Amino acid sequence: MQSLVDEREIAFLLYEFLNTEGLLERPRYADHSRHVFDSTLEAARQIALDFFAPHNALGDQREPKFEAGRASVIPETASAWRQFAEAGFLRAHWEEAEGGLQLPEVVLRAALAMFFAANVATSGYPFLTIGAANLLRSFGTDQQKRRFLEGLGNGRFSGTMSLTEPAQGSALGDIKTVAVPQNDGTYRLFGQKMFISGGDQNFTENIVHMVLARIEGAPAGASGVSLFIVPKRLVNDDGSLGEHNDVALAGLLHKMGWRNTTSTVLSFGEQDGAVGFLLGQANRGLAHMFQMMNEARIGVGLIASCLAYRGFAESLSYVRERPQGRMPSQKDPLLPQVRLIEHADVRRLLLAQKAFAEGGLAMCLFASALFEDQHTHPESDERARASLLLDLLTPVVKSWPAKYGCASNDMAIQLLGGAGYTREYPVEQLYRDQRLNPIHEGAEAIHGLDLLGRKVSVRNREALYLFQQTVGTDIRRLEGDSELASLAHALKTALNGLVAVTETLLALAIDEPDLALANSTVYLDAFGRVTAAWMWLRQAEAAQRAKDRPATEFDAAYYSGKIHTAKYFFEWELPVVTQQFALLATSSRLPFDMKEEWFQ
Description:
The chain is of the alpha+beta class. The protein has three domains: about 280 residues, Butyryl-CoA Dehydrogenase, subunit A, domain 2, CATH 2.40.110; about 160 residues, Up-down Bundle (Butyryl-CoA Dehydrogenase, subunit A, domain 3), CATH 1.20.140; about 160 residues. Helices cover about 55% and strands about 10% of the residues. The strands form three sheets. Strands 4-5-12-7-6 form a five-stranded mixed β-barrel. Helix 2 packs parallel to helix 5 and helix 13 packs antiparallel against helix 14. The longest helix is centred in the middle third of the chain and has 37 residues. InterPro entries: Acyl-CoA_dh-like_C_dom, Acyl-CoA_Oxase/DH_mid-dom, Acyl-CoA_Oxase/DH_mid-dom_sf, AcylCo_DH-like_C, AcylCo_DH/oxidase_C, AcylCoA_DH/ox_N, AcylCoA_DH/ox_N_sf, AcylCoA_DH/oxidase_NM_dom_sf. Its cofactor is FAD.
């Protein structure tokens, strides 16, 4: 049986690390209860175990095929999709008036963690569909919602985000796909998109593509990009399917991981043009699409954390059972072998995995709680604060779990030794699936530029100072704590160093922006380490509150493990920022000054 994210871990993060039960006091959730939340999570766990986990390896081994002009995936994918949709997870967070359950965002994301851990590739289809439907709910006209939203919510339709082009990756302001206005108010799209996840498959009646294109005659650059709804098949006013649209599958891409999520090349307008419907305002497409992109970025961080957690759970199970060698102090070859977990270096690797996986989960659910506060907190000032802090942290929440998820899954293979390198054990697939996460939804360098070049300086550094103030509040609360004071002081030093080096780089950027941003990926990593340390301090505080009154011996060990892992992170991982701050403060020029011709 595949291991998912442990129930105890989810309960701790939702109800002890976060105050998810406090959401029940908000009008939107007055009819809910913790029992409803827990029942939802249990339903997600059971569907994930029964319909997603069993074909995780099979979907990896039997890649999608290009047959008769369309993509074909293994039939188990359809069963999983149907169960997910019928259980209401595609629209669980929608308003009741829309047919939803008004589930809090943070509870939905915790439920999705079960599916991500069970089978990330199959989970990619609902993950994208939820985002596409949210985009339609935010910016669609009433007619567009009537035509497409019900299908996206009940599983008849799936959705995609169709951004990248063969000649343009992340530089979306330079896309070439063109939209030609028609007399009936629609548009005809012409162009090609690449790396479109879920761009074609054979288990839904229709696929609704969210496509970025430039209206004919629009200004150059990002200010001339618009967003369009382009269905694979046209939809009539009554919701029935019409004729096939001029959207063709040009090919499938063969990937290292996530193999059961089709990665497609799509051609729009090979004949008369693909019929598209303008979503939102003309020339505001990138601004609109950033809703789905930011949602996906937090989702990618959560996916990375779940894959790291799975690798940690698999390797922990293995080393607890596998006998191997003896302790250095045991010289007698007749003594029985000890289990791998008794070796100190194995426990070091396990601690690192636990720190990265559980730290990433905490970071992502904290971001989901900010999203919730941004929309449903009763006080407008708190909604604004949550929005500003979430915007600042989004590149960190996407990038840090992805980077260290890869490190964690690499350690999982190492702990299994030669067995970890074989397909008989799941950790090699987990690593391959994980390796995509630092790339998609913006590579690390892009998020470093975004964080240092835009996010920390927004509104005269308001977001940066809010981060400093929010973390500082937690630090001051724990500076007098007998067990956690040393962690609070270490975080205070790191936080002050982060703010100081940020001020230095922002001052340099006035005259030398290229040099100031040259090491922004290192800045992103340092910011992520400080944020992760903050998350671990908060987890340690929650564990300490409960440690003296545990319900069971298991709980006592669980809380002790949380506190010990927090201490590990502060002693082994956080100090790396000292060297990073030194390099950043002096704007180390070595990579910047390297000349192309010297790469020989």
